[in-house]
Amino acid sequence: MSGMRLLDRHVTLFSGSLRTLLRRESDRRRCADSPYAWLFQPYMGEELVALACTATPTQSSPVISVAAVVLSHQQVHTSRAFVITLGSAKQPESATLRRHHLLCEAGEILPPNSDNLSALVEFIGNRPIVGWQLEKRIGALNALLSKRLNFALPNAQVDVAKLHQRQLRRLHPEVEAPSSFAQALACWQVPITGMQSVLGEATASALLYMRLQRIMAQAA
Fold first, then answer.
1. From what superkingdom does this record's organism come (predicted)?
2. What is the model's pLDDT at position 13?
């Protein structure tokens, strides 16, 4: 069974508060005649994009590291990854900034201009995105996109944290679902090598998603 058909069966996992749905519709109308209109069209393929995002507040504006990794047919294509760190190049060096670079391993800071943001959203395209606690993690990125490009990510989203909690409750109702990403990976025996980097986190999210999809398919 394909990944997209499994997604169809579990459509309630798509994050979508009423506020989010209204915002997406407003963004879609605003971008109807723009080069970004295609991003709001339904995706008909078999690929997804695992997304990880880490934002660090600074004195001027947040520094945001993002990694996007393509996955399809039970395979994570790490060779097809997009990794970028966005922020003011004039950020004063600080312990906070050094820690961000150390943890994210996402390279030099690039300006959050329309060219760099366009490259990111065009890489993601209109494919569904998956990730751990997505709505919370991509809040700073969506705020930046709304400010610079006039829209937030319109993609269908699957929160792997909710998928993990649902499957654990179904299989082991007596067990309380671990709340941390590392605990969830250990729970389903997903390798966590390199997870401290933003690319490692995106890859681990993809692997966890695929592991849970296999368990769902076996139980069907």
1. Bacteria
2. 43
Domain count of the chain? Answer: 1
| pLDDT band at 98; cut points 50, 70, 90 | confident
Identify the burial level of 80 via C-beta atoms within 10 angstroms of its C-beta, where 0-12 means exposed, 13-18 middle and 19 or more buried.
middle
* Mean pLDDT, the chain, whole residue set: 85
59 phi-psi bin (left φ>0, alpha ψ -120 to 50, beta other): alpha
Cα–Cα–Cα angle for 61, 67, 70, rounded to 5 degrees: 150
Domain harbouring 51, CATH code: 3.30.420.10
Q: What is the DSSP string of 173-201?
A: TTSPPP-SHHHHHHHTT---TTTTSHHHH
Place of tokens 């922020």: 87
> Token pair for residue 73?
């047919």
CB 41 within 8 A of CB 49: no
169 pLDDT band, cuts 50/70/90, is confident
- Per the CB < 8 A criterion, the answer to whether 126 and 43 are in contact is yes
